[in-house]
From TrEMBL:
GO terms for molecular function: transmembrane transporter activity. This is Simple sugar transport system permease protein. InterPro entries: ABC_transp_permease. It is a multi-pass membrane protein. It is found in: Cell membrane. Its main location: membrane. Keywords: Cell membrane, Membrane, Sugar transport, Transmembrane, Transmembrane helix, Transport. It comes from Methylorubrum rhodinum.
Amino acid sequence: MRLDLVPRARRSPWLDALSPVLAFAAAVLVGGLAVSALGVSPGAAFLTYFVAPLSEVWSLQEVVLKAAPLALIATGLTFCYRAGLWNIGAEGQYVVGGLAGGWVAIATHGAEGFTLWILPAMLAAGTLAGLAYAMIPALLKVRLGVSEILTSLMLVYVAQLGLDYMVRGPLRDPQGYNFPQSVSFDAAARLPYLAEGESLHAGVLVVALALALAGLVLSRTLFGFEVRLVGASPRAARFAGFSKGQLTLAVFAISGGAAGLAGILEVAGRIGQLQPEISPGYGFTAIIVAFLGRLSPPGILIAALVIALTTIGGEGAQIDLKLPLDLTRAFQGLLLGLVLGADVLARYHVRIVPGGAAGATP
């Protein structure tokens, strides 16, 4: 006996819409069982994870600030994934973007006179650096047929080690008592806050604009149609005259540029200097966000807020309930697996085939 997946003749829009919700509910149930096994009340854990972060203004702002880079990176990755390409190296592109934009801030540290150009130059440098770094696996894929999964992933560690070297060496603050960090950025190199005394900065608005633009490109332009067609039916795309090689370069450029922009927005916003670690794993977590959001900018925004909520809640649970932070990461991974599984069941139904019919055609 075996189990076969048979495509559904008609897909239910209700099932498609509800599958992420059901997957989230299943993840919460499994997470409650895990928490209970650790000797903590599931009810108390639920309140700490999902309710407490929404009860204070500062924690709501933290949720938005954590969701912003996740949403931006995931939206860039959406272009690759919809085209059937796999950029796994957004973490490295994020780091390179933050490093390049941060170098501009350090190089202009202490500048006087007209300084309004510094922040735009930082954002441009970060975006272009992330784009250029993403071109390495894209060109290797197009020219030599090398797997973009392996090259993009391995380049993450090159970027991380490069950042570590720079902040411990050439870019280290000479007055920083030998701490591995750069000088603190000038005010001209920092993103302005949206309100006095609050933590939300202008980077949130940049992310919102980027998501709106990406949604427009994917749904209303010929390029967006090409991305969807190549991913859904490469053979039909060839008949239509679309070039897979050119599209590969284009979508990697978009995803790398988005990750690089996210990196410099974080450095010029919350961090304010270069450090050996400028990312808690945003590039990898954004992969979860992209698929949890069904590769759609509106869905990605919701998914990013949910993941950010669980992250802030997980930090609170670590302090208040003494639960390990790894439990939050396990929950996020479980959520991705359940969402993908629910998506499969929304597209296919399971058929049991007797053992004697193993060689039969479905």
